[in-house]
Amino acid sequence: MTHPPALTSALTRFLRRLGCGLAWAACALALAAPAQAAPLSAADEQAVRAAVQGQLAAFAADDAALAFSWAAPNVREALGTAAGFLAMVREAYPVVYRPASVAFLKPDNKDGQVFQRVQMVDAAGEAWLATYSLQRGGKGWLITGCVVVANKGRMA
Questions:
Q1: Which of 19, 83, 108, 145 is exposed most, by the fewest CB atoms within 10 A?
Q2: Is residue 156 part of a domain?
């Protein structure tokens, strides 16, 4: 079933605002809280990175189902389908959908919320910082949100 372009565009804008708002709120709350959680183990750091890498690899292959499998239940509920998720990422997060390069920073654990920052460069050579929030799921780490901002600072 295809939707009229105006509806699809409006839905995409709504989902982008909703997703960005929820992700910003989660990041702001977690970053404002005092860091009292224990550092992540080396195995957890690798697993967190692997979750983000797995989703990026799925985007590169246009594998909507695999990309969606790395999403936490809150994302799955908000977007409903793997195809809808892939379409939203393609339109709202082009650097995440097709980064020219990525550099992973050390993940942070703040009060049980894990954040993985990834420096990215897009096809035009612009630098971005993607901050992923993750939670431990039944099969490992799942991505609960992603905030992408222009990275005017230094690249790793």
A1: 83
A2: no
